[in-house]
Specification:
Layout (H helix, E strand, L loop, with lengths): L1 H12 L2 H9 L2 H21 L1 H6 L1 H7 L1 H12 L5 H33 L2 H25 L4 H26 L11 H9 L2
Length: 192
């Protein structure tokens, strides 16, 4: 999920300010989006802190919702400009909050159970996929923006399917989302 999901979300996510600029012709709105999504991410961090700590796997699955909202908002940005920018800003900020905090809890736990080398390699591959996605997205954004958004969203939904299957199979286990993430949750609570 991390590799494909990161690739899919980076295909479009990197270029949202450019998409807004192309739709509006206003650099101010593109910059306002950047500040707005940061503010939304901070608010979501505080609102969903218990969800991140107690159900990090579910949080990664639920990330589909804000990702779906901002991709659909981008498709209809020309038709519903103000609503599209507002929905994109809020949902993109929430999506990043869901991703970063849930992965922070899971990676903190997994780093205590696995060797640091495996975790480092996984993080490097994840970063490389984001770079490749940014280059690929930049090449195709002018060709057909709607097709790129639909492809990105489809790819992300496909990447979430293994998470959903894992969650359904293991949610009945006694320690699932409780003992397995307790070390990470304690560390997360220590952060300011």
């Amino acid at each position: 999920h991390k590799l494909i999901g990161n690739f899919a979300s980076s295909l479009v996510g990197t270029f949202i300010p450019l998409i807004i600029y192309k739709a509006t012709g206003s650099l101010r709105l593109a910059v306002l989006f950047l500040f707005g999504q940061c503010l939304c991410r901070i608010i979501a961090n505080h609102l969903f802190k218990k969800l991140y700590n107690n159900y990090p796997q579910l949080t990664l699955i639920l990330r589909v919702i804000p990702l779906l909202v901002y991709n659909i908002s981008l498709i209809f940005l020309q038709d519903f400009l103000v609503l599209g920018i507002i929905l994109t800003t809020i949902s993109y900020g929430v999506s990043l909050s869901f991703k970063n905090n849930a992965l922070g809890v899971l990676l903190n736990y997994s780093s205590q159970k696995k060797s640091k080398n495996k975790l480092t390699i996984t993080r490097i591959i994840e970063s490389v996929s984001a770079i490749i996605a940014s280059v690929a997205g930049g090449l195709f954004i002018d060709w057909n923006q709607t097709a790129l958004i639909i492809f990105s969203l489809s790819l992300y939904i496909i990447s979430v399917l293994p998470l959903i299957i894992y969650y359904i199979i293991n949610k009945g286990n006694v320690g699932f989302n409780k003992d397995f993430t307790s070390n990470a949750a304690e560390e997360y609570d220590k952060d300011p």
